[in-house]
Structure formats: structure tokens, C-alpha cells
Design goal:
By secondary structure, this protein is α/β, with parallel strands linked by helices. It folds into 2 domains: 4-222 and 288-330, TIM Barrel, CATH 3.20.20.30; 223-286. Helices cover 49% and strands 15% of the residues. The protein is built from 14 helices and 13 strands. Strands 1, 2, 3, 4, 5, 8, 9, 10, 11, 12 and 13 form an 11-stranded parallel sheet that branches. A hairpin with a 4-residue loop joins strand 6 and strand 7. Helix 6 (166-175) packs across helix 7 (189-202) and helix 9 (245-252) runs antiparallel to helix 10 (256-269). The N and C termini lie close together (5 Å).
């Protein structure tokens, strides 16, 4: 079986009944996990609480929530409660986000992201283990020995981190249960995974200790061009409008000309021009859109490269047809 995951949109039009139906269809079809994103749209935890009650088997997670807008204690409360409601099916997805969102939406200084991630993971893990919260970090000084006023369902909820810089990858390899990479063209798969596996080994861990999700999603659709346009728009937005982290990521992989062209085009002509500036061959290397068979081939290629989880989107809206498609994708 392939470890297939799906996502729930965090922006735009929204119908909770439709979201619940999507989750139930995926649950019935054997999809491994469902992730709810959070940026500056709807919050993730309200949606996850509903889905925890409406599903039975599928794992539920955040992809991602940031480590600035809520305290580590608050996040531990959220996840421990959701783990209880779901019967132990939560995955904690965390990331630092970036200064654009943290400073200009949440109004919090974007300081010491690596240190904050480490301390959040430490505190959340302590609270799940029911250890008295006496923590002496560089940011958090917690002296009174608080514990959660209920027993968590599990002493550890898996924590996946979204990381992109070399230092954050090294930290992820040392402290996380999973890694959410983003925007890695196929020609870069081997070098990126080899580097990450090196960090895992340096931390004294085994490769399977850290699940790596395929950064290149697959979309089952009869309109692949539309899906590719979405991929181009997303990549261009992150390169041009989300600070320097993603821009520098493309530069490190050898795509300076492409990234600079996107930024120039966006500055001159806006979003459509920025997306159009991405070469078609690069867009093709960032994801797969097409038939079920094409998507299965893409997932098998990714598994051969070393990725263990896949992000899947199915354009078909009919529930019965969606179940059938998901079952084929899961295998």
C-alpha cells in the first residue's frame, strides 16, 4: 500500500459539509492521512475537531501551524485534545513560517526560528509525557511544573516539521518524526534526500526514523494544464512574495536564473506574469497531473527515490468515483 495523504484548502470558498464528505471518502478508501493547512485564512484546529468526530481511521494533521502565534503550551493543549477526540490519530505539523506572515499578520517579531522550533518540540513532548514543565530554554523559562490536567491518549504524538534551509534540515533530522519538504524538482531529489539522510545519520538515527513526504504532489484530473497552472502560480508566489526563504531555496538548487526571472516578471506584471516566467519544464518537474495511471507511476518513481508519503489531489467530485480513484492510488 502507498501512504497517500490529502489536504484541505484554507482559503476561499468553503462548505464544511463538503469538507466532511471529502474526509469520509478518503477515510473509506484507505487514505493514510489528511492535513489541514493554516496561514492567514481559516484556523486549522476548528476544522480538525469536526473531522476528528466525523472520521474513524484516517490520520489527521496540520500542514502546518506556525510556532509564533500560539505558545508551546497552547499547541500542546490543542493537539492533545484533538488526539483524544480522534482516538490517537493526530500528526503535529509545525513550521516557523516567515517574517511576512509572522510580523505582518500576527504582529510578532520573527526572531530565532530554529531555537523556537526546538523549544516548542521539547515543551510539547514534555507535556505529552506528563513531565512537570520545568524547562530552561533560551526563549522559554518555565518553572512551576505545570502538567496537562488530563492524561494524553499517547505519550508522544508524531511531529513533522516543514523546513527548507540547511540548518533547519539538520535540526529536523535530529528531532522530528517527519519532514515536509517543498518545491524540489525531480533532478534535485537525489541530492536533497542524500543530504537529509546524512543529517539523520549524523544525529545517530536510522533513515526510517523520519518520514519524508514527497514534495511533488500528484493530481488526478482530465485537465492537467489547469493543474500545472496552479503549480506555477504557487511556486511563483512563494518565490516572489513570501520573503527570501523560498527564493534562496531555488538558488541553492541551481535555479537562480529562473527565480530571478520570476521576481522581475512579478514586479513588472503581477501574479500572472510571475507564473508565466517559470519555464514549463521546471513546472513539470514540480508535480504530476493526469490520469490515475500517470499519478501512480509518479508516486512509484518518488518511492524509488526514497520518499515515503505522497500528497494527492483528485479533481473528480462524485463521491463514489473519488473512492474508486483513491483506492487505486493507495493500491
Amino acid at each position: 500500500m502507498r501512504r497517500v495523504s490529502i489536504g484541505i484548502n484554507w482559503q476561499g470558498a468553503f462548505d464544511i459539509d463538503e469538507v466532511v464528505e471529502q474526509a469520509k471518502v478518503a477515510d473509506e478508501a484507505g487514505v493514510d492521512s489528511l492535513f489541514v493547512a493554516e496561514a492567514w485564512g481559516r484556523d486549522a484546529f476548528t476544522i480538525l475537531a469536526v473531522l476528528a468526530r466525523e472520521t474513524s481511521h484516517i490520520k489527521l494533521g496540520t500542514s502546518i501551524v506556525n510556532i509564533y502565534s500560539r505558545s508551546p503550551g497552547a499547541l500542546a493543549q490543542h493537539f492533545a485534545t484533538l488526539d483524544e477526540l480522534s482516538g490517537g490519530r493526530m500528526i503535529i505539523g509545525l513550521g516557523s513560517s516567515g517574517p511576512q506572515v509572522i510580523e505582518h499578520f500576527h504582529g510578532v517579531p520573527f526572531e530565532k526560528p530554529l531555537t523556537r522550533v526546538k523549544e516548542y518540540v521539547d515543551v510539547i513532548n514534555m507535556l505529552m509525557r506528563e513531565e512537570p514543565l520545568q524547562y530552561h530554554g533560551k526563549i522559554f523559562k518555565l518553572e512551576r511544573g505545570f502538567t496537562l490536567r488530563f492524561t494524553p491518549v499517547r505519550p508522544h504524538i508524531p511531529i513533522y516539521l516543514a523546513s527548507i534551509t540547511p540548518k533547519s534540515l539538520e535540526q529536523t533530522a535530529a528531532i522530528a518524526d517527519g519532514w515536509f519538504p517543498i518545491f524540489i524538482p525531480k533532478p534535485q531529489w537525489k541530492s536533497q534526500l542524500d543530504a537529509f539522510r546524512g543529517y539523520i545519520a549524523a544525529a545517530g538515527r536510522q533513515p526510517d526514523d523520519v518520514i519524508v513526504r514527497n514534495p511533488n504532489g500528484v493530481t488526478v484530473t482530465d485537465n492537467p494544464e489547469r493543474a500545472r497552472e496552479g503549480t506555477a502560480s504557487g511556486a511563483a508566489f512563494y518565490i516572489a512574495r513570501m520573503g527570501d526563504f523560498y527564493y534562496q531555496h531555488f538558488l541553492r538548487m541551481g535555479y537562480a536564473d529562473e527565480a530571478n526571472a520570476v521576481r522581475r516578471a512579478w514586479a513588472d506584471g503581477g501574479a500572472a506574469a510571475g507564473a508565466a516566467a517559470l519555464p514549463a519544464e521546471l513546472v513539470e518537474e514540480l508535480g504530476t497531473a493526469g490520469t490515475v495511471e500517470q499519478c501512480i507511476d509518479a508516486m512509484e518513481e518518488a518511492e524509488s527515490a526514497g520518499f515515503q508519503m505522497h500528497s494527492v489531489n483528485v479533481a473528480e467530485r462524485d463521491p463514489k468515483k473519488r473512492v474508486a480513484i483513491f483506492k487505486q492510488l493507495v493500491g
